[in-house]
Amino acid sequence: MQVFIQTVASGILIGGVYALIGLGMTLIMGVMGIINLAHGQLMMVAMYITFVLFSYFGIDPYICIFVTMPLLFLIGILIQKYLLNPLLKVESILPENQVLMTVGIGMVLTEIARFIFTSNYVSIKTPYAAKAIFIKNISLNLPMCIAFLIAVFFTLLLFWFLLKTDTGRAIRATAQDKEAALIMGINTPKITYLTFGIGSALVALAGTILLPIYYLFPDIGGPFTLKAFVITILGGLGSTIGAIVGGIILGIAESLGATYVAMGYREAIGFVIFVLVLIFLPGGIKSITKV
Amino acid sequence: MKSIKIPILILLFIAFPLIIRSDYYLHLMIIALMWVTVGTAWNLLAGYTGQVSFGHAIFFGTGAYTAGLLASKLKISAWWGMLLGGPCAIIIAAFVGWVCFRLRGPYFALATLAGGEIIRLVAVNWESLTKGMVGILLMPTFKSKLPYYYIALGIAILAMLKVHFLMKTKYGYWFLAIREDQDAAEAIGINTSLYKNISLLVSAFFTGTAGAFYTNYMGFIDPSVVFSLHYISIMTILVVIVGGVATTFGPAIGAFIMVGVQELFRSSIFGLAPKWVSQAHALAFGLLVVFVIMFMANGIVGDWHKISRIFRRAR
Amino acid sequence: MVLWEIGIRYPEYLEEPDRSLIMAILELKGVTKDFGGLRAVDNVSFKVQEGEIFGLIGPNGAGKTTIFNLIHNVYTPTSGDIIFAGRSIKGLKTHQICRLGIARTFQIVKPLGRLSVLDNVAVSAFLRTDNVRDAKTLAQEVLNFTGLTSVAHMPAKGLPIGIRKRLEIARALATQPRLLLLDETSAGLNPTELEEAIALIKKIREKGITILIIEHIMKVIMSISDRIHAINFGVTIAEGPPEMVAKDPKVIEAYLGEAYA
Question: Residue C235 sits in which domain range?
């Protein structure tokens, strides 16, 4: 029983970070209607930046947030503006061009990283990496707890932004009905840049706070993109609450899978969930609640 | 006029290995012909029926492992895999269709992508069945590359003929209707579910056969190769897009171009460029995707008027 | 094979109806449709006699297109039943319903853009035959019938709205229906096109096809309908011959402000 609670607890912690990844993707999906298959690769970029800052300048990862988030925000805007929006005007038989473009971008980012850093696994050793805090009999890894709290903070910040600010409302409006938003005077192209930027910033945050716990190599983007996609489908396409719930569920499921099944299949858990959702609940969690 | 060009082309292909006696180029041609088959098969499902699969590695790998497992587990010649690779791929495709056709457009694409990754992970981890990352090693049946070339050519021609003539029948019209507007198609009496699956099964059959051929030719397969997202699934998509979606010869043209470009980088432009160029071939692949989608989304055949205009202006 | 000009012949698998027994080719019995909390169609019932032109009118959002969607099972009724030629079609798949003999047009036309006009219609013709040549012949006949021969080989995408609306009808006709659902096929047409549209609908009726038509343009629906069923907010408010319905106070109230075109 003890082990079970322990497993669920660490699952929740990592789930909080996963939620950030899912939120970024679901925002992009909701507003632009495109699936960003470079999502994980953007996270990888943020992680490498953090790695460099920590290894060469000794800057603590949690401070790096203030570098990686704005940087990836900018990169996101540039990608949307120069690589994705132009595609909307291209007349082609296959409508999945935007998705394919993100695949290409993802590959380019991965290979550039491989070029600079080689395929070796790297990780960072922060002084508090192995520390744990104890609640009753459960030990919780300290960096994970910090990561979770930061994730929660920024999630709340995001919700405040989306619900209370004008720009946030503009984003939600565009997500609901692009043409109507345009008619209402919202600068839709700008909103798309902003959304991709925010999505990238969120996933950069996730990467930065995960680095102390994880290891890093150029191909790490792929699995995380797929995680993001699983979370989004699980929560319901375009649903922010769904992304949070989905993230936590995935975190717990992976944790349980790793503990009770086998380490090797940890990655497969996400896929199993994905297939089950597709077969039994195609609308995601969103469709059974009213969020 | 076109009807004379094609037999001449076929004759040239048949004569090729007899004229150019180089194993290196023969190898490239064989690989290219294999991609012609896979590209043509994918084109049927995506270009003509509008269902863009990002997971064709599922069928390729299934065909490859059918041949491989028959040889390594049952000690049957892998050539039986050539006959069974297609049907096994069909069985897998039936399941894939049942799960994935609930989704449309980009979500279908992603479902197939995930499917490809799932089966890859299964192949990696189910070591008792597939030997995991160790892979399957076979003794190639023929010493010379010649027979493989003609087999690959035969499969490619068969695939192109099948797709070409299928598109001229009722099936072809209904596939196109589904692509153009699935709801309208349903409203005029087309059982869209059924026909999407038919398209998928035919597509999977040829892809699986190509996979089985790959096992026989290369003599070695492992999950990271035959179930690869980037080097099988995405490569397939690129092959068809570069050549021209929804055209008979587009996938074929694209196959030769993509194999050519890949080889160009892997060999550092045949040894003329510095060594790191070959390291960068994966990067080049990614850049190629970006470039093609941005500027050539309809492929060489589709955007021919654009391309010829560039050349005209350059004069 | 069925040659259209000879006259309507029912596909073999649909038994020749005993007209003395079947009173109505289509019957809606207490059909209700809820979308979450919204009741789009509320206990609507009517019968359509074979061979008549039955009009369905109501202000925007009254639920008319929803009724078409229910007949064609794009949505399934929350309660009630839909009977076609004596058998319930509730819950059948859309393509099966089309096969049984109900064809529809869409309010916002859905041409198969990259196909030619001829191919658009040929696609539907394939419902009744597997032979390519027969399908094309039938398609050509339907194009002649609907006056689209001049654009037969043009891609459907760039064509003007009047032609696309006629194509929508042609495509439905090629499935050789017994009942044709027309959804606002006259919207956006100029006066000449309007006259042509009315003439076409009358020609279709002469072929023996029953027509259920949704229309906003009063001139069209009043002049061609045998009977009209008026709904508002998903509820039936009147039914009867056009002159009677036009004078019904509830109908006038529902359309308050909408000019008699």
Answer: 23-101+178-261
Residues A3, A135 contacting (CB under 8 angstroms): no
Count of domains for chain B:
1
Say yes or no for a CB contact (<8 Å) between B190 and C104: no
Q: Are residues C165 and C200 in the same domain?
A: no
- Nearest by CB to residue C72, choosing from B173, B181, B187, is B187
Give domain status of residue C260, yes or no.
yes
Give this complex's ipTM: 0.86
CB contact under 8 A, C110 and B184: yes
Give yes or no for a contact between C88 and C81, defined as CB atoms under 8 angstroms apart.
yes
Span A11-20, average pLDDT: 89
CB-CB neighbors (< 8 A) of A250 in chain B: none
Q: What stretches in chain C show pLDDT beneath 50?
A: 1-10, 12-14, 20-21, 261
Residues C95 and C218 reside in one and the same domain: yes
Coil, strand or helix at A236: coil
Confidence check: pLDDT of B289 > 90: no
Which residue among B168, B173, B189 sits closest to C95, beta carbon to beta carbon? B189
Q: Does residue B275 lie in a domain region?
A: no
pLDDT of residue B1: 47
Q: Which chains touch B (3 or more CB pairs under 8 A)?
A: A, C
Choosing from C176, C197, C218, the residue where a domain stops is: C176
Mutation site, A26, A39, A94, interface B, largest B CB count within 10 A: A94
User: Would you state the structure tokens that stand for residue A87, as one six-digit string?
Assistant: 């595609």
The edge-to-edge listing of strands for the beta sheet with C210-214 is: C102-104, C179-183, C210-214, C53-57, C227-232, C235-240
| Residue showing tokens 């929560």 | A235
Neighbours, chain C (3 or more CB pairs < 8 A): B
Same domain assignment for residues C97 and C184: yes
Q: Give the predicted TM-score (pTM) of the model.
A: 0.87
Per-residue buried b or exposed e for C36-50, using 16+ beta carbons within 10 Å of the residue's own CB: eeebbbbebebbbeb
| B271 — pLDDT class (breaks 50, 70, 90) | low
- Calculate ∠ Cα B179-B183-B184, nearest 5°: 85
Which structural domain, as residue segments, surrounds residue B98? 22-228
pLDDT tens digit string along B6-54?
888 888 888 888 888 888 889 999 999 999 999 999 999 999 999 999 9
pLDDT for B128 beyond 50: yes
Which B residues, 179 through 198, put their C-beta within 8 Å of a C-beta on chain C?
180-181, 183-192
Reported as a single tens digit per residue, the pLDDT across A95-128 is 778 888 898 899 999 989 988 888 888 887 777 7
Name C225's Cβ contacts closer than 8 Å, sequence gap at least 6: C53, C54, C55, C213, C242
Task: Using the 3D structure, point to which of C143, C176, C209 is the last residue of a domain.
Answer: C176
pLDDT tens-place string over residues C212-227: 999 877 778 888 899 9
Claim to verify: residue C126 and residue C252 sit in the same structural domain = no
Contact list, A96 vs chain B (CB under 8 Å): 52, 105-106, 109
Closest CA in chain B for residue A111: B283
Burial of B166 (0-12, 13-18, 19+ CB in 10 A): middle
Q: How many domains does chain C fold into?
A: 2
pLDDT tens string A76-90: 999 988 888 888 777
Chain C positions in Cβ-Cβ contact with residue B175 (cut-off 8 Å): none
